[in-house]
Design goal:
Number of strands: 2
Helix content: 55-70%
Structural class: mainly alpha
CATH class: Mainly Alpha
Order of helices and strands: HHEEHHHHHHH
Strand order of the largest sheet: 1-2
Number of domains: 1
CATH topology: Arp2/3 complex 21 kDa subunit ARPC3
Oligomer: single chain
């Protein structure tokens, strides 16, 4: 059974990852000005609210929401992969408080900050939103699948490969989540929202 709080080793792993992100942002000369920080905070808040509305919740974690990843995707489209990954990291840390299931410090990384940091990959191809969203969700899927194989193999039914179990388990909720996000992105006036985030009127 998972712990309800992060251990000192888990906190150290999170701080180490945060340091790597900060160094990356400095190398890329990405400045987190006041406007950018406000949008990061706003998108994280929206993601947190949407994540509490669960259409379906898996027993060992993972849930289908009404597009909780859309705000992080918009952040990535607008500010690029670096800022998108930073926002994903911060939300991943918040998600530990929302839905904690901790068995190992490395598992914390692969189930919390890294999957949401993967949303930053959408910022690589902002003009191709559905393909970029697919890439972002594939990155998240990969993180959760690795965690499942390494740390949750015991949950696999007898005689079933841990890899096959992890792929099936994570696909069960991530594919619907991906499709819902694509539908919302189709309906939303994304271009206008991004222009508003750029300060254009």
């Amino acid at each position: 059974m998972g712990e309800l709080v992060a251990s000192p080793a888990s906190l150290f792993a999170l701080l180490a990852l945060l340091l790597i992100i900060i160094v990356f942002l400095r190398i890329k000369r990405i400045k987190l000005d006041t406007r950018t920080l406000i949008y990061i905070a706003l998108m994280i808040a929206l993601t947190a609210v949407l994540h509490t509305i669960r259409l379906f919740h898996m027993p060992q974690g993972g849930s289908v929401t009404p597009g909780a990843m859309v705000p992080l995707l918009l952040l990535s489209y607008r500010f690029g992969p670096g800022v998108g990954a930073f926002g994903g990291f911060l939300y991943g840390c918040l998600n530990i408080l929302q839905d904690p299931f901790i068995v190992h410090p490395v598992q914390v990384l692969f189930d919390y900050p890294l999957p949401y940091m993967a949303m930053g990959l959408a910022g690589l191809f902002p003009a191709h939103r559905y393909g970029a969203t697919l890439l972002a969700f594939f990155g998240r899927f990969l993180c959760h699948t690795i965690s499942g194989v390494v740390f949750f193999a015991s949950y696999a039914p007898e005689g079933m490969s841990p890899l096959a179990y992890s792929i099936g388990f994570n696909a069960t909720y991530l594919i619907p989540e991906f499709l819902i996000c694509c539908l919302i992105l189709k309906v939303l006036p994304v271009s206008r929202l991004l222009e508003a985030m750029q300060g254009r009127h």
